[in-house]
Amino acid sequence: MEARLRLPQTPWQKLRVVLEMIKIEHTLFALPFALMGALLAAGGLPTGAQIVWILVAMVGARSAAMAFNRLVDRDIDARNPRTANRALPAGLVSVPFVVGFTVVASALLVGAAYRLNPLAFALSPVALVIVFFYSFTKRFTAWSHAFLGLALAVAPVGAWIAVRGAFGVPALWLGAAVVCWLIGFDIIYALQDVGFDRTAGLRSLPASLGPRRALSVGRAAHAVMIGCLAGVGVTAGLGAWYYAGVALAAVLIAWEHAIIRPDDLRRLNVAFFNLNIAVSSGLLLFTALDIWLRKG
């Protein structure tokens, strides 16, 4: 209850509340895949301007999506003991502030897309619809994890379009890999709320199928992810270093599933956050290395 009474006073405290509200650290999930999409599209480093505007667009899209999610879920978050201390239900920020933040972040995406190319600009409202729609899905489908994956897949596909000004097959393979990756690890994250979701009438695969069966679905999704990453390599003409990165990702994902059990979530943060950051960062590193060595 103490956190509810401590309103942020200084600009630094207010910034910390906002960054916590949008889980800025989770940007590390999507950022490496966005940069992968840009590298693959350019066949090396994109221009400095492209990199800057891709980063601005991604930060805008993700910030808008997270703020909108907090708005839509504020009543649910208030009833869930795990999320009751989030900024909105705790009264640390107001609804008008979060609405304004969402509008500004959305404008940031659209403005950055405008600076990139006509197709990116034309598709920026579509991207916002996709990332906003996810927030409603847990109310009507247990496959909300897939919709969140689709929202995250906007990053690499959008980055490819930002560089090329057109769609490309490797980007679609990479987007499919991100969807499957997200399904797998979001199922693990959802294990925390199985009891609450069932009581509140919310849907997730762990709540609908039970934790064990849901984890089996997650493992299958991650297996498909590895196949999609192979599709990226084939269609983009990548080499041994890239596939070494894919192999490393497979090992890390296997480790992720090995340390999680339905009745033992003590290492959930390691499985959900640390290992998945290593997966996306490792894939980016090995992709960059493969491209650099082939160009050299």
TrEMBL record:
It is an enzyme of class 2 (transferase). It is a multi-pass membrane protein. InterPro entries: Polyprenyltransferase_UbiA-li (IPR006371), Prenyltransferase (IPR039653), UbiA_prenyltransferase (IPR000537), UbiA_sf (IPR044878). Its cofactor is Mg(2+). One of its GO terms (cellular component) is plasma membrane. Its EC number is 2.5.1.39. The keyword Membrane applies. Pfam families: UbiA. Keywords: Cell inner membrane, Cell membrane, Membrane, Transferase, Transmembrane, Transmembrane helix. Gene3D superfamilies: UbiA prenyltransferase. It is found in: Membrane. The chain crosses the membrane at residues 21-45, 51-69, 90-113, 119-136, 143-163, 169-192, 240-260, 272-293. GO terms for molecular function: 4-hydroxybenzoate polyprenyltransferase activity. GO terms for biological process: ubiquinone biosynthetic process. Belongs to the UbiA prenyltransferase family. This is 4-hydroxybenzoate polyprenyltransferase. It comes from uncultured Armatimonadetes bacterium. The lineage of its organism: Bacteria, Bacillati, Armatimonadota, environmental samples.
